[in-house]
Write a structure and sequence with these properties.
Blueprint lengths: L1 H23 L9 E15 L4 E10 L10 E6 L10 E9 L12 H8 L1 E7 L4 E2 L8 H23 L5 H9 L7 H9 L10 H20 L2 H6 L2 H19 L4 H18 L7 H14 L7 H23 L6 H31 L6 H26 L5 H26 L11 H16 L2 H21 L3 E5 L5 E4 L5 E4 L16 E2 L7 E5 L5 E5 L15 E5 L16 E4 H7 L2 E6 L2 E6 L17
Parallel strand pairs: 3-5, 9-10, 12-13, 13-14
Antiparallel strand pairs: 1-2, 1-4, 2-3, 4-5, 4-6, 7-8, 7-15, 8-9, 11-12, 15-16
Helix pairs in contact: 3-4, 5-14, 6-8, 6-9, 8-9, 9-10, 11-12, 11-15, 12-13, 12-15, 13-14, 15-16
């Protein structure tokens, strides 16, 4: 009864927090494409892009649009040479469009995340943004935000130049969170090697900052005998660490992942202040509750899921080891224990985050565990001491020495990332799309491993993981997809699709389909394709059929670029399915599946009961 009450209370509080958070958002996204128009506003951040950079702008005015109905923030891709910086007022001749819908059913919903972040439009700059003469915005908070943005950009520029040309951008990303100085090839290598977690300012970074400050203050204050005999210096060190991570939170841009890591770090050092174990499942639970109450929308983000899954698994391993492992005083014993700890934690964290990486990104790094085993000692034994040296030398104006050594250590990490990414191509394998129900089962298995004890932990975890894999293999996978970009993708392997250019549209292709092979365009009245699942796909180019279309066989799906109302048969089980481009414009991209001897259409969908969407239709 008690467990039931606790679960019910948690559901009520979580739902209430989500409703309260939603009611506090005053985002005003644009409804349709605008432009080219003149956009004037203040640059709040510079973000990386595959071409050029992306500018986050807080608009002061958008030509032809009422200021009261303007988005709180917009994001523009800037390809030309950038001559403005964060904190500056700029004028940009731009094309704007609403934040994109999710491209696949159950896929990443960028529009939802953009709505909670206050991002009301995306687009690109025609030409170059130029500086304006308008001063800071009204309000102390607005001016403070721009001051912090400018200081953050200056820090990133300084770190990039002081850390060396090869790894300067990487160092700037780790210290300031600004990845715009980092080459795209390095970012791709870190993702392909499973080391992309180093890029996000999260628990690792705040742990390094807080841990270094804690170590320096505790050891330094311990040398002052009158103080260390009267006051618990570890509590003073914890207070200093809390101040340091709070400053780092503000300086790094206070992204969602950084806020989550700050809450977890605060719980960690707060436990030291009240004489409680810093690493415990109780501390993890408090941090999770705090994050859900403050940012409930982050529960659906990959960062929240992956960080708490990895942290929970590592705490469970730590608690188990603390009861079983005998800590030897000999240097060789401590080194061997450190090697075993690194090996076990790298494997455990990689396996715990793998289901979430597959679900959200449709990929897994083949050599991710090996890359982490090779790179993390470099981070621990070289990069972290260099960062500590930078902190010690900064008051003396000699921080460039520490940053130079920091950059050299990161060059080795980049070498490992590129080698692992290139070598991993030989072991790359395709994975089927993971349904959300399967991810929930995997999450249940991780929960069992974390919270159960003794043999029950492994038994329950193995049983649930086996159930997840079986469900995953039995779940029907799409055989084709008509994306909102106008392209049609036909399945050629487990998770490999080839692209057919079909309809012109101003939208991005689905994530994961960009590297697909290409069929020749369909330049006839109709083109006929046979898929690997036995579904016959007909692409019909006739813009105005003179008569209603006859009933096709059940395993046939006909796609129309344009079809006037009343000319198509009603979708039913006795006939094949049909889709017109107007359906894609209304309901988003559609996935085509085979279920038994019939076909099934699943649209990406838009829901009218969600403030970031406009209509309802999930399935036909």
């Amino acid at each position: 009864m008690r467990i039931t009450f606790i679960i019910a209370l948690g559901l009520v509080l979580g739902g209430g927090a989500g409703k309260l958070r939603t009611s506090q958002i005053s985002s005003v996204p644009i409804e349709s494409k605008l432009g080219p128009v003149m956009v004037e506003g203040w640059v709040s951040a510079v973000e990386p892009a595959r071409r050029g950079v992306r500018l986050r702008i807080r608009p002061h005015a958008i030509a032809g649009r009422d200021p009261n109905s303007s988005p709180r923030e917009i994001r523009l891709t800037h390809i030309s040479e950038l001559q403005v910086s964060s904190g500056r007022f700029v004028r940009c001749w731009s094309v704007l469009r609403p934040p994109p819908e999710r491209a696949l059913p159950g896929g990443y919903d960028f529009r939802r995340q953009a709505w909670f972040d206050g991002l009301g439009a995306v687009g690109y700059v025609q030409g170059r943004c130029r500086g304006g003469v308008l001063g800071a915005p009204e309000g102390a908070l607005g001016r403070l935000d721009l001051f912090i943005a400018a200081m953050r950009r200056s820090l990133a520029s300084f770190v990039q130049s002081a850390s060396g040309e090869r790894a300067g951008g990487f160092a700037a990303a780790l210290i300031s969170g600004d990845r715009s100085y980092m080459p795209q090839s390095d970012q791709d290598a870190l993702r392909a090697s499973g080391l992309a977690h180093l890029l996000a300012i999260s628990g690792l970074h705040l742990g390094i900052v807080g841990g270094l400050v804690y170590f320096i203050f505790r050891r330094g204050l311990g040398l002052i005998e009158p103080l260390s005999l009267r006051i618990p210096v570890q509590k003073l060190a914890a207070i200093a660490s809390l101040i340091a991570i709070a400053f780092y939170l503000v300086l790094s841009g206070a992204s969602v992942s950084t806020q989550r890591a700050f809450i977890m770090s605060t719980v960690f050092f707060g436990a030291i202040l009240i004489d409680r174990p810093a690493l415990s499942l109780r501390s993890l639970s408090i941090a999770m509750i705090a994050v859900i109450l403050l940012r409930p929308e982050s529960v659906l983000s990959p960062g929240f899921q992956m960080s708490f899954a990895a942290t929970g698994i590592l705490i469970a391993i730590y608690e188990n080891w603390s009861r079983r492992v005998t800590y030897k005083k000999a240097a060789l014993g401590r080194v061997w224990l450190g090697v075993k700890s690194l090996f076990v934690t790298s494997i455990a964290a990689s396996l715990a985050t793998a289901p979430f990486a597959i679900f959200h990104f449709d990929r897994v790094a083949p050599l991710g565990i090996a890359a982490n085993l090779a790179a993390m000692p470099v981070i621990s034994l070289a990069a972290v001491p260099a960062a500590g040296l930078t902190i010690l030398l900064a008051p003396l104006g000699l921080s460039e020495i520490g940053l130079y050594l920091f950059g050299k250590s990161l060059e080795l990490v980049l070498t490992i990332a590129h080698f692992s990414a290139n070598a991993g191509e030989a072991y790359r394998f395709d994975l089927p799309v993971m349904p959300s129900a399967v991810l929930s089962i995997f999450a249940g298995g991780i929960f069992a491993i974390i919270f159960f004890r003794s043999w029950l932990r492994l038994a329950m975890g193995a049983l649930i993981f086996t159930s997840a894999f079986v469900t995953w293999t039995l779940f029907p996978a799409p055989t084709a997809h008509w994306a909102s970009s106008g392209d049609v993708y036909i399945k050629q392997g487990v998770d490999r699709f080839d692209r057919i250019p079909f309809q012109e549209a101003d939208a991005l292709p689905p994530f994961g389909f960009e590297a697909s092979g290409d069929y020749p365009p369909c330049d006839q009245d109709k083109c006929d394709y046979q898929t690997v699942d036995g579904i016959r796909l007909i692409l019909d180019n006739r813009l105005e059929p003179s008569a209603p279309i006859a009933c096709d066989p059940p395993l046939t799906v006909r796609l129309f670029r344009e079809a006037p109302p009343g000319t198509l048969p009603v979708n039913n089980d006795d006939c094949g399915k049909h889709i017109a481009w107007r359906d894609i414009e209304t309901y988003g991209g559609v996935s085509i599946l085979r279920v038994g001897d019939r076909t099934k259409l699943i649209f990406a969908g838009r829901c009218s009961d969600r403030p970031w969407r406009s209509c309802v239709k999930d399935q036909l």
